[in-house]
Structure formats: C-alpha cells, structure tokens
C-alpha cells in the first residue's frame, strides 16, 4: 500500500512573509508538494484570481461549507473567514502526495488537533519592527487594519512553541531553503524500514 503524503503546515504572524515564501516555493520547478487553495470571504485584491489565489466565497456560501463540514479548519481573521477544503486535503494525502497549507495560527491549531502527525512550521520575522515595516510597505491594508494585524502578531508569535520547527524569514530564499531541508529530513525520519532495504542485506 502506498504511504500517505505528509501534511505540511506553514503558519506565522500576518505580514511575516508566509504568502511570499509559499509563492517562491511553488515557483521552483522541483517542488513536489501540492498547494491547498483556501476558501475566503475576503474580496479579491488586484491581480488575484478565483481558484488560483483563493476560492472567493460570500459569507452565506462559507457558512454553508462550515455547516456541511467541508472544512478541515477555518478561522475569522480581520473580519473575514478563511478555511481549508477537507476533501482536497484528504484525497491528495491518500494519493501519497505531500499537501502544503499556508494558514494563520488559529487554523493551524485546529489542524494540529486533527492531524497530530503533520509537520508544523512557524515563520518568524527577524524583529517586530521589521514585521511592521513589511505590513506597511505591502500597502494593501488601511491604518486600522495595520494596527489590528500588529496587535494580533504579538499573540500569534507566542504560539510558536506549539510548532515542530521555527524558521526565520530574514531573506525569502533562506526561508525556502530551510523549509525544503526540513521536509526532506522529515521524510527520511518518518520512512518506515522498507522491505527492499532488508532484502538488500539478505543478498550480501
Ligand atoms: N485559518 C486559515 N487561514 C488562512 C487560510 N488561507 C489563508 N489564511 C491566512 O489568512 C491570513 C490573511 O490572508 P490574506 O488576507 O491573504 O492576507 P496576507 O496573507 O496577510 O497577505 C494569512 O495569515 C493567511 O496565511 C485558510 O485556509 N485557513
Ligand atoms: N524575507 C523578506 N524580506 C523582506 N520583505 C519580505 C520578506 N518576505 C516577505 N516580505 C514582504 O513582506 C510583506 C508581507 O509579506 P506576505 O507574504 O504578504 O506576508 P503574510 O502572507 O505572512 O501576511 C510583503 O510586502 C512582502 O514582499
């Protein structure tokens, strides 16, 4: 029987660079993870495409998905719902493929309860002032939203102790390299002793 894939969860405070790091990982041709596209009630930003960046839903549609138990996890973040489609994740893991989630910390906590064997990676900024700098320079938020995200960030950073690995996002390329190395190492650590390795010993 085929081994199940690994569920990789990348989380961290808003503005740390989760989206940037995730996009960089998925732009690399040798990346073998499957990205789980989230559902959200947030309005699309300029250039965002439905079904690529997110599945954009109305609040009513999202609440129906919650009632029908179609979400592995969901959270309300700065006034909008975000959630992970459960069928896609389970099916893809069953096909033996690694699934990559990029989600905020409340959702990651729910995933940990349902998938304790997942690989949980927390992205940290080099400093709080650099975090603020990133949120401000991204230019997508109002002043209210920036302040809200920053006060949430301190509580979010507290949660890093619940994770398997903490990765600093000083530079995007460094963070991606660290994440890729962690996944490779975890695969080696988790691989059961396969019969073909034991056969190799018998033959010697
Ligand atoms: N819980 C949860 N969080 C999500 C999901 N998809 C995205 N997020 C998180 O929601 C937060 C807000 O996302 P977004 O509005 O795209 O803004 P940005 O990531 O801060 O640029 C980020 O922390 C995302 O990682 C999801 O399916 N579930
Ligand atoms: N390593 C980094 N160094 C400098 N700026 C970064 C880095 N990673 C991300 N950024 C910038 O920080 C801002 C927030 O990144 P984003 O990926 O939207 O964060 P998140 O998804 O965690 O909210 C963006 O303007 C992005 O270009």
**Secondary structure tally, helices:** 8
Any idea what the shape is? globular
Instruction: Determine the mean pLDDT.
Output: 92
Elements, N to C (H/E): EHEEEHEEHEHEHHEHH
CATH superfamily of the domain at 7-36 and 98-203: P-loop containing nucleotide triphosphate hydrolases
Radius of gyration: 18 Å
Total strands: the figure is: 9
Q: Unreliable segments (pLDDT under 50, ≥5 consecutive)?
A: none
Main sheet, how many strands, which sense, barrel? 5 strands, parallel
Main structural class: alpha/beta
* Second rung of CATH, namely the architecture of the domain at 7-36 and 98-203: 3-Layer(aba) Sandwich
Residues in helices, as a percent range: 40-55%
Spatial ordering of strands, largest sheet: 2-7-1-8-9
CATH fold-level topology of the domain at 7-36 and 98-203: Rossmann fold
- Hey, roughly how much beta strand do the residues contain? 15-25%
What is the CATH first-level class name of the domain at 7-36 and 98-203?
Alpha Beta
Report how far the terminal alpha carbons are from each other.
Answer: 27 Å
Protein name: Guanylate kinase
Main location: cytoplasm
Subcellular location: Cytoplasm
Domain Guanylate kinase-like: 5-184
